[in-house]
Amino acid sequence: MNGKPTGEALIPAKKLGLFVGKRLRLTLLLAVVLLPAALCILVPYLWMFTTSLKPKGLTSLPPYLYPIHFEFVNYLIAWKAAPFLRYYANTTLVAVAVVLLRLVLAGMAAYAFAFLRFKGRDLLFLLFLGTMMIPFQATVIPAYLIVRDLGWFNTFQALIVPRMVDAFSIFLMRQAFIGIPRDYLDAARLDGASHWNILWRFALPLSRATAVTMGLFSFLFVWNDFLWPLLVANAEQMRTIQLGLQVFSGRYQTEWTYMMAGTVTATLLPLVLFLLAQKQFISGLTRSGLKG
């Protein structure tokens, strides 16, 4: 009663101190491990940015990570070397179209695999997952021949249609759908909602984080794709941003400063999109069963 803590009151405080100390040591250990790993990941990007600011012809000097020269005119020269505005527009149009089509088609397929019962459903889903094991290089020749027979060379159809369905997108959306409480769907059915209404008014809005994650994956895949546009859209007016960067790579010499300047500008839009959707992206990964 004298105001001093008793022995029983000191036990929880001692446990709390041990817990805080353990968490602090774990945090320091993670920092020691992750900071060098993060630095190794950032080094190529720092080198790219530094190279983009070097004067022409000085790329053979010993490499350094922090900028010494600041030749911002390299960006203007790189931008004027080719119609990059056209390349940006082409790539953005194709990427947005692929994302929207994958959202619609993957959403419908995932809804069927998650909520509808039909014979062979699980086997068909396993077959879809099996296609993820097949590398793109193994299917590029049949896809190329189909595009050739349809007469789609140097068209947006050739860049969009072959990539509007993706097994990974279906897998992500299905994993999100099966986590939706069945009570919500049963209540919607009792109110007379059709499968189409349930998909667009309940399932997809409740899986918005996973849909954003799927959209980011698809956008980055299309934005960074090089091989497929090189095969089916090599005309200058149909080139994408990755093909446009090849203007700085000649037969006998490569203009590294201008290529790095163009590469920096090419990474700005994906970087901005990721920063804007970072929380949704992380939430979508954790809800889809892909977390570590």
Considering the chains and any ligands shown, give keywords for the structure.
71% helix, flat
Structural summary, described in words:
This protein is mainly alpha-helical. Helix content is 71%, strand content 0%. The chain has 14 helices and no strands. The chain is flat, with a radius of gyration of 26 Å. The model has no long low-confidence stretch (mean pLDDT 86).
Radius of gyration equals 26 Å
Structural class: mainly alpha
Q: Could you describe the largest sheet, including whether it forms a barrel?
A: none
The share of residues in extended strands comes to under 5%
Which overall shape is indicated by the principal axes computed on the Cα atoms?
flat
Summarize the structure.
With 292 residues, the chain is mostly helical.
Write the layout of secondary structure elements.
Layout: H1 7-52, H2 73-80, H3 84-115, H4 121-130, H5 136-150, H6 156-160, H7 167-177, H8 182-190, H9 195-206, H10 208-224, H11 227-232, H12 241-244, H13 256-276, H14 278-287
